[in-house]
Amino acid sequence: MPDYEFLDHTADLGIRLTAPDLPGLYAKSALVLADLLSGPCRGPGDRNRRVSVEGEDPADLLVNWLREILFLFWSEGLLVCQVRIQEVSGTFLTAEILGETFRPDTHPVGEEIKAVTWHQARVARENNGWTAQVIFDV
After folding, report:
1. Is 8 within 8 Å of 58 (Cβ atoms)?
2. What CATH number does residue 117 fall under?
3. Beta pairing class for 78-88 and 13-19
4. In the sheet where 5-7 sits, what is the strand order?
5. Residues 84-94 pLDDT 10s
6. What's the rounded Cα separation, in Å, for the pair 18 and 29?
7. Mean pLDDT lowest for which of 17-31, 60-74, 84-98, 107-121?
8. Does the model's pTM come out above 0.85?
């Protein structure tokens, strides 16, 4: 499971994560969201989805990407297990998601995340890698 840290936030849930490159940062953010929702997958995943999202800048792209991951979880029960970023720029992302069906009787129930917010959303190049932070409405 990817490592990340929690941000001190009074009402919502904030996270900060790092990765060596931009594709890794977006892939890791989806896995972190899945971890918060239910913990790590039990296997490689047996469901496959292709996802494309756009944003005005890298932070907006991150918010829209995670909103799509959250939408797939709540609408289709898709818990992300693996992410293969196929293309990413500062404003566009295409990825293949491998996941499994979330089942409350066999998966742990984690945070009840209602939304991904733009509040304090950030994506930046720092030192030898990339850093992102995002706040979730719980």
Report:
1. no
2. 3.55.10.10
3. unpaired
4. 5-7, 13-19, 129-137, 115-126
5. 999 999 899 99
6. 9
7. 107-121
8. yes
- Tell me the average pLDDT of the chain: 93
Q: Which residue has the tokens 């009840």?
A: 112
Residue from 137, 136, 128, 138 nearest 15 by CA? 136
Range of the domain at 100: 5-137
Paired tokens of 66: 């995670």
What is the C-alpha separation between 80 and 101, in angstroms, rounded?
A: 9
Tell me which residue has tokens 């719980």.
138
Classified as helix, coil or strand, 48 is strand
Read off the pLDDT of residues 125-134 as tens digits, 9 standing for 90 and up. Answer: 998 899 999 9
- Count of domains forming the chain: 1
Q: Where residue 2 falls among pLDDT bands split at 50, 70, 90?
A: low
